[in-house]
Design brief:
Blueprint lengths: L19 E5 L6 E5 L10 E4 L5 E3 H4 E5 L27 E3 L6 E3 L3 E5 L18 E5 L2 E5 L2 H16 L16 H4 L1 H20 L4
Antiparallel strand pairs: 1-2, 2-3, 3-4, 5-8, 6-7, 9-10
This protein binds zinc ion (2 copies).
Length: 206
């Protein structure tokens, strides 16, 4: 089973890549960088634009809303969910009952996190559009950072030279969507990745 011609995929899983994302700044559409101290540590995520100084972080986007399903303490009628969202729970927030007009103190708050969007290729934390995307065969091809790019590129370049035989069960390249490994798309994807890599190296984007 061992062949020296085999693509030597570093045994990296998706987990090893998702501590850094390049996304589009919601203010100026230029590249913004999302950084996490380690993968899936979303509560510590920060995002900064490289061009316009726009930035935010997870805690800033977090909001507290009165929990749904509350009932009036006087007449037991269901309280309408108000459109209030605050940076912190407020102990002096009252909701009016529509039936008896009693003011009900909000006792339970729930966390909400407003994503920027959810359509298309977006980062999983803030919901910002990914910066490096291309349409290939009606599918969106994307990479999140330089390490992700380099893994895909070396895998696809190796598959140009020989039939790829990937033996690493835990490798990222095993789980690639079919259109990426489709031989008909390979040259196009390789040239896109090389172009993106140039942009990243030139602009010191990791
Ligand atoms: Zn910007
Ligand atoms: Zn009431």
């Amino acid at each position: 089973m061992s062949s020296h011609k085999r693509y030597r995929a570093p045994a990296l899983r998706w987990y090893d890549y998702v501590d850094h994302f390049w996304v589009k700044c919601p203010e100026c559409d230029q590249a913004a960088s999302i950084e996490l101290p380690f993968a899936f540590n979303t509560q510590k995520a920060i995002v900064k634009c490289r061009s316009c100084f726009w930035h935010t972080d997870y805690a800033t986007r977090l909001r507290y809303e009165p929990a749904a399903g509350g009932r009036c303490s006087v007449c037991c009628a269901k309280l309408a969910k108000p459109s209030v969202a605050l940076p912190k729970p407020n102990k002096n927030t009252f909701l009016p009952c529509k039936s008896c007009k009693a003011a009900n103190l909000v006792l339970r708050w729930e966390k909400t996190f407003k994503k920027y969007g959810n359509k298309g290729a977006r980062d999983p934390i803030f919901g910002l559009p990914l910066y490096f995307t291309a349409e290939i065969s009606d599918q969106t091809f994307w990479i999140i950072n330089l390490k992700h790019l380099e893994t895909l590129l070396s895998y696809l370049e190796a598959s140009l030279r020989q039939k790829p035989l990937v033996s690493h069960n835990m490798s990222l390249v095993e789980k690639l969507p079919k259109f990426i490994i489709d031989a008909r798309n390979r040259d196009k994807i390789i040239s896109i990745l090389r172009k993106w890599k140039e942009i990243m190296i030139e602009n010191n984007m990791q």
